[in-house]
Design brief:
The protein has about 250 residues and is an all-alpha fold. Helix content is about 80%, strand content about 0%. It has a single domain, classed as Four Helix Bundle (Hemerythrin (Met), subunit A) (Up-down Bundle), CATH 1.20.120.
Length: about 250
């Protein structure tokens, strides 16, 4: 049984990579001018889908769930968005409407994988990490696409999550899970929505700038609040005895 489960997980991960390789190559050949930009776009997409596939393949024991398959589909869509978005950053040309369509599909499917996990009773910390990484990749890719038309400051929206992860390498307590927060989830969900709105064809320039301009400070506020809370918890635990620190349990995953 374990062998079949591992084989299914490997097949799911490799199917996602293969789907990207075929669709991404086709997109790049049709939409990206020049071999250099095609390679850059395909490389960016490969990083996204490679990270998602590796997340599944590195599980011990190796497994995948119906919700993971939905998330892998989202990762394929995000990777294809990267194929279209990254070259635009260098050329400054208008983005393809197909990017918005695929980005919107990836955004809407975010509500599906969680529902599938709950319905099938297969929710897990590994699945949550894969989902979070896919969400972050979508925001980063959309921020890259928006940068060409709105300004490079939108890259900050996509980069902030990765800055937080990098900070955790130097201050490990920043990796401590926090209790679930409706405000955090709402602000996180607003980021791709705001960027998709800004990228939607026909949106007036003022409205296109306004949505990310609201989303960015909200995101900074959310991360700042989490950092303050984690620092406060760290300082509080320093004042506890060893027995008391062992009794402190972290909250559920982000």
């Amino acid at each position: 049984m374990k062998s079949r489960t591992a084989e299914r997980a490997s097949a799911d991960a490799m199917a996602a990579v293969a789907a990207y390789a075929v669709a991404g190559s086709l997109l790049a050949s049709v939409h990206s001018p020049g071999l250099g930009l095609q390679s850059v776009g395909l490389g960016a997409g490969a990083v996204v889908i490679g990270g998602a596939a590796t997340s599944v393949l590195r599980r011990i024991p190796r497994y995948s769930t119906p919700a993971d398959r939905v998330t892998l589909l989202r990762a394929v869509l995000v990777s294809l968005c990267a194929v279209l978005a990254v070259p635009v950053l260098f050329t400054g040309s208008p983005h393809d409407p197909l990017l918005v369509a695929m980005g919107a599909a990836a955004y809407l499917l975010d509500a599906v994988d969680g529902a599938v996990a709950r319905r099938t009773g297969t929710a897990s910390a590994a699945g949550a990490r894969l989902d979070t990484a896919t969400d972050a990749a979508l925001v980063l890719v959309l921020s890259v696409a928006a940068a060409a038309g709105i300004g490079p400051w939108t890259l900050g929206i996509g980069a902030l999550y990765y800055v937080f992860l990098a900070a955790g390498r130097f201050r490990p307590h920043l990796k401590t899970p926090l209790p679930s927060s409706a405000a955090r989830k709402g602000i996180g969900a607003f980021q791709p929505f705001a960027l998709l709105l800004a990228l939607t064809p026909g949106i007036p320039p003022a409205a296109a700038c306004a949505a990310p301009a609201v989303a960015f400070p909200l995101l900074m506020l959310s991360f700042a609040r989490d950092v303050v809370e984690l620092e406060r918890r760290r300082d509080g635990q320093h004042g506890l005895s060893g027995r008391e620190r062992r009794a402190v349990r972290p909250g559920p995953p982000r």
